[in-house]
Amino acid sequence: MTDLNRLNRRHFLRTTSAAAAAGVFAGSSRFSLAADSPNERPVFATIGLRNQGWTITNKSTKFADFAAFADVDANVLGATNEKLKEKTGKAADGYDDYRKVLERDDIDAVMIATPDHWHTKVSVEAMLAGKDVYCEKPLTLTIAEGKLIEKIVKQTGRVFQVGTMQRTENDHRFLKAIALIRAGRIGDIRKVTCGINGATGSPVIPAIDVPEGLDWDMWLGPAPKASYRALPEIRQGYGGGVPLYTNCHYAWRNWYEYSGGQMNDWGAHHVDIATWALGAGETGPNKITPVSYSLPVEYKDGYPTVDDQYNTPTKFEIHANMPGDIPLVITSEGDNGILFEGTKGRFFVNRGRLSGKPVEDLESNPLPEGAVEEVYGGPVSENHTANFIAAMQSRQQPISDVWTHNRMLETCHLANIAIRLGRELNWDPQKREIVGDPEANSFLSRENRKGYEIDM
Length: 456
Known about the structure:
The structure is a single chain. This protein folds into 2 domains: 3-168 and 382-401, Rossmann fold (3-Layer(aba) Sandwich), CATH 3.40.50.720; 194-336 and 405-444, no CATH class. Helices cover 33% and strands 17% of the residues. It is built from 15 helices and 17 strands. The chain has helices at residues 3-22, 52-60, 74-88, 98-102, 116-128, 143-156, 173-182, 216-220, 261-265, 267-277, 357-360, 371-376, 384-394, 402-421, 438-441, and strands spanning 43-47, 65-70, 93-95, 109-112, 132-135, 160-162, 189-195, 287-294, 299-300, 303-304, 315-322, 326-331, 337-342, 346-349, 354-355, 425-428, 433-434. The strands form 3 sheets. A 9-stranded mixed β-sheet has the order 15-14-13-7-12-11-8-16-17. A 6-stranded parallel β-sheet has the order 3-2-1-4-5-6, with helices on both faces. The longest helix has 20 residues, at 3-22. The two termini are 36 Å apart. Residues 81-163 form the Gfo/Idh/MocA-like oxidoreductase N-terminal domain. Pfam families: GFO_IDH_MocA, GFO_IDH_MocA_C2.
């Protein structure tokens, strides 16, 4: 059994024990993975529908029936429901308030693809309402939010899948990379570099009227009160059809109020695989060093001094000291992907390629039979939703569990804190706190705006 699956199993046992004591754990499931058995298919709802919301819904219609959608933008809600009807022949019930979805007894699980600042509130309330949860990455806005989600998973016994799909999809390329490492093909790991791309700043973005159909106050939700901002130029390509420069649709990723910039966006993918490969899913770094970075606006005491421009880093090089004193470098430079360097060789992996001499050597010296399945912990699911539903059946935690995800994401959160404060941070991975730095520790949590506290 792999380290990851030992961890999953251990947390599963903790979860079931706590939930059984509370009398809330469901030990069996009424549905199966059979796509041709409509009476046994789980009933899903999606909360947050733009871009990734439709992507995960679209991928999941093979395995589940969608009975409800929720989004604070009426235009997005309507357009997504039309897509669902065109694909499946049936639209979902549409709501402007996700809480109406959670009130329904016929929903087995919710898929959450809201902006990051909404993830924790919706996830916690969904679990308390008896729903299993699939939530997009990055799971949290702060480290404290991660701890809360872990607590509620354990308390309720719900199954929780994080949407870090590189653990399952992309032709299993990342699983093969970890299998190479475990087979000793590069010897002992000496360094891991995660290239996650840089970002751009923005011009000054004026406050304007809220677009028709958008409930702006609800979109802000737990985040601080702010004006809606946008410039006329329209985004093209993925995420297109909305303002290129805004503090709302798509571009919210460039604001610390709602996200963590590239560090949490792409970092949640590549740092995840790197942490898994290093066997650090139960711990994390002990030191975070901001070697270099660029912020698009001026900061004071860790906070941007203006509110009308993007404020997350545009360039950076962060060194995380991982167990065994192995450096994990997170950089905006170079190719997007992960470079593993060991005592016997090196190779590179991303969503498009797995390359390097250890990979070329597989032609004459293939991996042992079952090596990829051993990394995964069993037969590899065809996609992330299939793994989620299989976990719903077994009542065990899936391949992207909240514990290993949060441990990985702590590295990204700490990197952002180090950049915001402009200094090295010493981290205690057992206590999960920053050592000797009260100011830095104040960034580990964030209060929700009044009226949008988590309903517990």
